[in-house]
Amino acid sequence: MSKTTTDTELPPAPDDDTAAERLSTAPVESEGPTGIGVLGWARWMWRQLTSMRVALILLFLLSLAAIPGSLIPQNGQNQFKVQTWKAQHTAVAPIYEKLQLFDVYSSVWFSAIYILLFVSLAGCIVPRTWQFVGVLRSQPPAAPRNLTRMPVYAAWRTGADPEQVNAAAHRLLRKRGFRADLSGGSVAAEKGYLREVGNLLFHLSLFALLGGFAWASLASGTGGKLMVEGQGYSNTITQLDDFTGTRFYGNQDLDPFYLKLDDFTSKFQNTGDQMGAARQFTANVEYYGGSDESKLKKGTIEVNHPLEIGGSKVYLIGHGYAPVITVKNGKGDVVYHDVVPFLPQDANLTSTGVVKVSDYGVGPDGNRTQLGFSGFFLPTAPLSFAGTGPISLFPGDAAPELVLNAFSGDLGTDSGLPQNIYQLNTSKLTQMQQDGQPAKALLKPGQAWDLPNGYGSITFEGYKQWASFNVSHRPGNAIALTGAVLAILGLIGSLFIQRRRIWVRAVALPGGGTQVELAGLARSESAKIAEELAELAVDLQDDAPASEEDGDGTAQADVEAPAEEAVPDAPEAAASDPAVPADQNSKE
């Protein structure tokens, strides 16, 4: 007996809001915890960091971050230039200091970029390497069921046995350098593994390149030294003008050697549109490593041609002129005689400098005093300074002159506070007066200036040239250079070597004879796979000649070129090939 359901027994009809909720595709709100959790976020961030997109962004950021290091003087390369730059740009120097723009390559932000790139490369190299090892250990993927849908295809009939054709194809493919496997009535062959080797070599080389830079930043040091012709120094912290060490390289790790500047040669173009352009900078030096003076050698240092002594390289980074100055007091006694380097301010080597006579003694007024002189050295002075001031017209020493201003008072050298030897602190000095005007003089080599008020005289005896050197110890340079060369080789291999597969299948036909099929597939669109398949088809005619019923008795092995949108029907091949990355974020 059947049961009849009445209206009163029907379930209550849902209201409009409940029905709308059932039909809606919006996510259901929940009072419980939502999201992928900490582990999920960590996995997502790791996959993003090891993706090709992020790696390229980091590499681009690293290139951008290196630009300030090329445009702004660096403490690790030339601290003297940094000080000069700060003096000329007093407004922005504190900002640059806070942004670490004078120490770009050891700054926090630069280190963060290359450490992230380092981790990104490591996260890419390890899985790719295991993946590639798996590909090498496996056999080439078996032939798909339908070879006619491959991008490149050839077929003909022959009277040879299928086993004979497959064996011949296997032999010919191995002879051509393919890794071939004969099984299941077909031959599967693959070639171009060096493409992935090039990829891995490129990534490993970048890894080595970054490692070399990292090692250099941790175990390198640089020092600066300015020497006038005839001067020498021992490579110790007390004789260097400045030194910048790192975590694993301090002043006690300096390479022991002696270096002396015999003479300096500078030549400039004196005619034509490029008048004043530098043509030769050569520092002729004597040196020996360690402490054995009997091993004294002669050498030359030029721009971009450093001198290597032990584990350090000595670079030529600057040059200028150094006037020879003699100062006598009112009694005619020599109170100062020295060579004073003047610093270039422009391309024509208009140079500024100071002379500090701290041991002058008692002045004309009976009190102990000190003298200071500031001025310009002009290698090629103009006939008149009207409208231009003291400037040099040419960097060569065609018409050298020395312009000086004289001061007396307290130089501040006895206070114990460090001073810049290239600057004159005039806060406690008084400029000498002559005929109611500030005392100044224009001297040529050999000329003397009698100072006013009986302070004696100052003589411009002549001048010499000076050269500044950068002594660099960077143990990671060889690693970085090797990494750069290998990266280029790996990139060439990954760009020009093509990964490709060829399948050959010979099947006996029911009516007699054998059907021979050849198909090719490349990882990228290329005509090379079609050429190789055509050559293989021609070579295979010796063992599997085409039957006469295929045409006029000639070998009919027409090879189809790759189509624009050829999609191979080979799911089992793709599934069995571990070289095809399943992760869309892979750097393949």
Automatic annotation (TrEMBL):
**Per the record, what is one GO cellular component?**
membrane
Q: Pfam families attached here?
A: ResB
Q: Where in the cell is it found?
A: Membrane
Indicate how the chain sits in the lipid bilayer. Multi-pass membrane protein
Sorted alphabetically, the Gene Ontology BP terms of this entry are: cytochrome complex assembly
Q: What spans are recorded as compositionally biased (Low complexity)? A: 568-588
The lineage's top-level taxon is Bacteria
Under InterPro entries, the record lists: Cyt_c_bgen_Ccs1/CcsB/ResB, ResB-like_domain
Keywords of this entry: Cytochrome c-type biogenesis, Membrane, Transmembrane, Transmembrane helix
- Which protein is depicted? Cytochrome C biogenesis protein
Q: Which organism is it from?
A: Kitasatospora aureofaciens (Streptomyces aureofaciens)
| Organism phylogeny | Bacteria, Bacillati, Actinomycetota, Actinomycetes, Kitasatosporales
